[in-house]
TrEMBL record:
Alphabetized UniProt keyword annotations: Membrane, Transmembrane, Transmembrane helix
Annotated signal peptide: none
Chain segments annotated as transmembrane: 12-28, 68-87, 94-115, 144-161, 167-195, 283-303, 315-339, 345-362, 374-391
Keyword Transmembrane annotated: yes
Protein name: Glycosyltransferase RgtA/B/C/D-like domain-containing protein
Domain of life according to the entry: Bacteria
Amino acid sequence: MIEPSDRGIRRFDWWLVACISLGVYALAHRLGLASPFVINDDARQQLFWMARWLDPALYPPDLLSDYAAAYVPAGVKALYFVAVKGFGLEPLFVSKLVAGALFVLLALALFGLGVALEGPTLGWFAAAMAWLMPYFLKNISGGLSRAFAGPLLALFVLAWMRRCGRGMAWVLLLEAVTIPYIAILCAGCACLDAVMARLTDRPAAPFPARSSHGLALLAAAAMVIGQNVTLAAKGFGPLVGRAALAAGPEFSAAGRLELYPLPNPFFDLFYWPLESIGLFLEWGLFPGIVSLAVLAPVLWYGARSTPWPQLAAKVRPLAMLLAGSLALYVLARAIALVLFVPDRYICYTINLCYALVLAVCLRHALAPLLTRRWAGAALVLLAAGLGVWRLTNVGLYDYRADAPLYAAVAALPADALVAGNPKDMDNVLTFGRRNVLASYELAHAWSVGLWKSMLPRLAHQAEAYYAKDATVVREFAKAYGVGWIVVREADFEPAAIARGPLFAPFDRRIQELAGAPGNFVLLNEAQFPYTSPEPGVRLVDVRPAAQPAP
């Protein structure tokens, strides 16, 4: 029996959902909240430069910091500016607060969707999907631009389902300044709904329905276009096209970005979403399949008990969102990567739909149990406990092992420029708070202008790092103004070189350098004296004044 949407809903329910969600997040990400070195990996490419707001001497303007600042949407920058500059908080710590707030917002939006579809019981089941499906927190965990995608998409659909055009307009504007491609998605789907409503006998769409809605659409479009124009004006754009994708080894499976050939749609629509439902990520392939097999009969029983015709009358927004997402996904694949990575237009929609279908089926499968006293509270506590377990450290990486290296780099002059293995440079850049010549995470080959500058940097850095002639290293340092090189001795072991120490197209050249006669010159203490902040890691001073006399 479907409950009325407004039956039994109290303000206390919303607060309780928020408090439980916050508890799930805090317990699941307790290690990240306790340590500055446990963060989302992408946070190292987008947030480091914000430390300038605490200390203007940090990160003198250069290619990487300028690109990172231009790459982050204006709304995200404004939020961090208020927290960092206004309250003196560290940017990386702010990212964890933002992630927690967005996780709570997602759970509240899902609760609202469940309430709108059927009533408070389904609302609780829907909120529990935020706790039980790692996909959502995995994308939220960095507190970055993409962290806003899932929560704001769910909030947009909630406003749409409640036929609140003003709410849809405000959420669309928030998307435009925080996650532009989701603004494109939501605006397109809402307009599609409005057109379809006019062509049929269905009630008029709630958005766009007024002149103010048209202004909101224009403002959102202006902000999205402005973001792209800014990147292009600063020499970082445009996005790479299909011909370059096919020709560039950096886009292949051996490259920095495994973008081409584009993945089979089966993976985007089914395989990867099912990974977030079954226990694939926790225990592996076979246990994941078994967990789905155990869940399937329960869902089947719930699906047979669900009054689908009554729900169907309320899911028009979800149907139009799914249709529009599929259309944009197909278009983005056809003109890749002009509209950015194609799966971004479908993955959030698909996972949102999966979450709501799971919630509906589980709610009706467990309906007999819910008639018992305290059963609802027990299920909520069970879901929260399982959520803490499933979400523990989801989206986080532990970089504490190299803390002595970060401290040594942080002791260098504020205007120091550091080079080394790009995979080490992301952490040096973020935790050592010193500019680096080229890093792995910021090697965004999809940005044509940026890659034009990054490609020679990465190539020259690799030549110097694996050089067997001291002159090559000294000329490299002089050409770019590099003062220090971080050398990890394990990078020079034959096994490391054989498996590819960086990515295509550089791996083959590095292997050629390693095969040349002689020894790696950066490992020659007589030529390049060093300090060792931790075992196996050298901090080599390559400034002219620090070089030994011939």
